[in-house]
Amino acid sequence: MKFFLDTANIDEIRDAAEYGLIDGVTTNPSLVAKEGRDFKDILRDITRIVDGPISAEVVSTEAEGILHEAHELASVHRNIVVKVPMIKEGMKALRQLTKEGIRTNVTLCFNPNQALIAAKLGATYVSPFVGRFDDVSEVGMNLIADLVRIFRNYNFQTQILVASCRSPLHVREAALLGAHVATMPYKVLEQLLKHPLTDIGLDRFLKDWEKAHQPAHA
């Protein structure tokens, strides 16, 4: 399973990259807005740190505008993946981008039919938002299970990118179901490394070692 970091913060990306676990990065307009910097400058900085897919989202809602933005974003670096919204105009643009060989990530996907359409039109990734399902008292992972089954039925090359991962539990469940990618905030990545029993065990080992190597009293 691939781990993507869901952020536009360069410090977070640089720190996470030191683990050697980050296969790519996803951004969105909300994350970019928090940084208060030029979007393309942020993307260029990310490409210097992470050698993997970097999703950059368009903000146009008409096919012509989406295509124009997509071409500009794709020209920034070979690793840029263009995020396209799951709307009718977005799908018009997606079809053309697939023909041009530009990699895409269909975002704001909330049901199997939407994902099926994206896969049929050749999306590189489809991003179901599991955390937002939880916000409205639905089980987001049920959607992932459906998508894994559908995509295997038809051998789609589109990868399932589990987005809006709010906790290590989301990541674990995505892996158990066979999703290709999980994208997560920096804090969730850090939480994956932790367990209270690890901390307790390490503390005990160090204390025992210290006791065993104390100098003998005269």
Number of strands: 8
**CATH level 1 name:** Alpha Beta
N-to-C order of helices and strands = EHEHHEHEHEHEHHEHEHH
* Residue windows where pLDDT falls under 50 for at least 5 positions: none
Strand content: 15-25%
Task: Work out the helix count.
Answer: 11
Summarize the amount of helix as a percent range. Answer: 40-55%
Would you give the CATH topology?
Answer: TIM Barrel
Which structural category fits the helices and strands?
alpha/beta
CATH superfamily: Aldolase class I
Largest sheet: 8 strands, parallel, barrel
Span from first to last CA? 58 Å
* Shape verdict: globular
Total number of domains:
1
The strand line-up of the biggest sheet is 1-2-3-4-5-6-7-8
Radius of gyration: 20 Å
CATH architecture classification: Alpha-Beta Barrel
Mean pLDDT: 95
Question: Any overview of this molecule?
Answer:
This protein is of the alpha/beta class and 218 residues long. The protein has one domain: Aldolase class I (TIM Barrel). The protein is 53% helix and 17% strand. Strands 1-2-3-4-5-6-7-8 form an eight-stranded parallel barrel, surrounded by eight helices. The model has no long low-confidence stretch (mean pLDDT 95).
Q: Key features?
A:
218 residues, alpha/beta, 53% helix, eight-stranded parallel beta barrel, TIM Barrel
SSE topology:
Blueprint: E1 2-6, H1 10-17, E2 22-26, H2 29-35, H3 39-49, E3 54-57, H4 63-74, E4 80-85, H5 88-100, E5 104-109, H6 112-120, E6 125-128, H7 130-135, H8 140-154, E7 159-162, H9 168-177, E8 181-184, H10 186-192, H11 196-212
Helix pairs in contact: 1-3, 4-5, 6-8, 8-9
